[in-house]
Amino acid sequence: MKRLHVNQDRCTGCESCVLTCSFEHGERFGLHLARIRVSRNEELADFRPKVCIQCEGRFCVAACPVGALSVDEKTGAIRVSEDLCTGCRQCEPACPFGGVHFSEGIQTPFICDLCGGDPECVKVCQLPQAITFVEPS
Fold first, then answer.
1. How far apart (Å, rounded) are the C-alpha atoms in residues 110 and 79?
2. Which three-class secondary structure string do you get for the chain?
3. pLDDT at 137 > cutoff 80
4. What is the pLDDT of residue 136?
5. Strand duo 46-50 + 69-71: pairing
6. What's the CA gap between 90 and 95, in Å, rounded?
7. Which entry of 32, 36, 59, 127 is 20 to 30 Å from 16 by CA?
8. Can you tell me whether residue 48 is helix, strand or coil?
9. Which band of pLDDT confidence, cut at 50, 70 and 90, is reported for residue 26?
10. pLDDT per residue over 31-80, tens digit each?
11. Cα 135 to Cα 29: distance, rounded to the nearest angstrom
C-alpha cells in the first residue's frame, strides 16, 4: 500500500502543501486547518514537513484509549472517529514523526487521511518533490 514519503532536504518552505490540505479538508485556506505542517527555521533555511506517514507501528492507534483511531483498509490511512474521540491527546505524543497534532478549538486530532488515496499535497509539491506518494521499499 502506498505511503507518504517526506524528503526534508527538498522542502522549500512554500507551504503550498499546507494550504492545499486546509482547503481540501476545510473548504477554506488556513494553516490551522491542515493535516500537514511545516516547521521552519528561517535563519538556516531549514523547513521540515510534518505529516502522518502511515507508519507500520501505528503508535497513535495503539495509544488511543477509546478506539477512536483506526486504519482504513482501502488506503491504509488513519481514520479518526469524531464520535468516539474524547480529545485526550494521547495520540499526539505517541507519534514519533510529529504526524499528529491538534488545532485550537478543535477536539479531534489532525491526522493525514491521504485524501482518500490521492493526496493533494503531493500534487502541489511536484517541483521540489519534498512529499511523494510511493510504495514502501
1. 10
2. CCEEEECHHHCCCCCHHHHHHHHHHHCCCCHHHCCCEEEEEHHHCEEEEECCCCCCCCHHHHHCCCCCEEECCCCCCEEECCCCCCCCCCHHHHCCCCCCECCCCCCCCECCCHHHHCCHHHHHCCCCCCEEEECCC
3. no
4. 84
5. unpaired
6. 9
7. 59
8. strand
9. confident
10. 888 999 999 998 998 999 999 999 999 999 999 999 999 999 999 999 99
11. 30
Measured CA to CA, the distance from residue 25 to residue 10 in angstroms comes to 25
Mean local confidence (pLDDT), 76-97:
96
CA atoms within 13 A on the CB side of 45: 3
Q: Which residue has the cell 493526496?
A: 119
Given a contact cutoff of 8 angstroms between Cβ atoms, the answer to whether 55 and 103 are in contact is no
Nearest partner of 115 among 66, 77, 62, judged by Cα: 77
> Which cell numbers hold the place of 66?
477509546
As a whole number of Å, the CA-based R_g of the chain is 14
SS3 of residue 33 by DSSP:
helix
**28, pLDDT greater than 90:** no
